[in-house]
Structure formats: C-alpha cells, structure tokens
Fold this sequence. Notes:
Blueprint: H1 2-35, H2 41-45, H3 52-60, H4 62-85, H5 89-106, H6 128-141, H7 150-160
Helix pairs in contact: 1-4, 1-6, 4-5, 5-6
Amino acid sequence: MQIKESQKLQTCALVILRILIGWHFLYEGVAKLLKGNWSAAGFLSQSKWILSPVFQWMVSNETVLNLVNQMNIWGLILIGLGLITGTFTRIAAAAGMALIFLYYLCNPPLAGLFYSIPSEGNYLIVNKNVVEMAALFVLIVFPAARNWGIDHILVRMFRRS
C-alpha cells in the first residue's frame, strides 16, 4: 500500500510540474502576442557565442525576423497548451527543450560574455533555461500525462482499437 501512495504522489508532482512549465510557456507566448510589436531582435542581436552569425543574420533579414517572431510566439503558445492539457506531452516537452536550447545558444551565461540586456542573476553555465530543459527532460522520460491529461484519453482510445 505504501508503494501505491508514493506512486500517486510522484504522478501528482509530475502533473504539477507539467502544468507549471506549460503555464510559463503559454504566458510568455500570449504576452508577446498581446504586445503586438514584440520582436526577438533585441535578444538575438545580443548573441556573442558560436551561433552569433546566424542570429545576427536573422536580425538583419526582416522577412526571416518576422518568421522567427511568429514561430517563437506560436511555438510558446502551442507548447504551453500541450503541456497544460497533457496533449502530445512528450512532443511538447521536446519542442520546449529545443526552443529553450536555442535561447541558451543565443545568450549563454559563460564567463567573458557580457550582455547589455540584464540577466536575472550571476550564473556560470547553468541558468534557468538549463533547469527548465532538465525539467522538460523529466517530463519526456516519465509519462507525465498518461494519468491526467488528454494523452490519457488518447492512449485508452488507441488501446481499444
């Protein structure tokens, strides 16, 4: 009986983690959408690391920048909705990891790299992006939506077929 109770608690913790990360993604996407004139240009233009030429090119090409802005906004929104509702959770978590990894590659907290955009703290290698990527990895590894979420309904439907 003790094992079953701890499994319920673990499942509950995973669901809470999934929903909280989903909320963060959804909020960021909706905030950017509602701002109307939001652009990733400021963030991308600060890039100083290995992919800096790629990010600088994105900023210099208006068509590409507009595409990047829309993909960022709608990616955040769709990943957030997927995580909150537990729909295609592993795909949403993997997409979230990929998006955050791009953010990290653009502006990593490495010694010797200084940005004009203030960061939330003084980090070295590990920042909130790395922590959130690790949490998303946990959601991929463990079935965080198979118990509570749309994925649960989909799995049951396909098992009957």
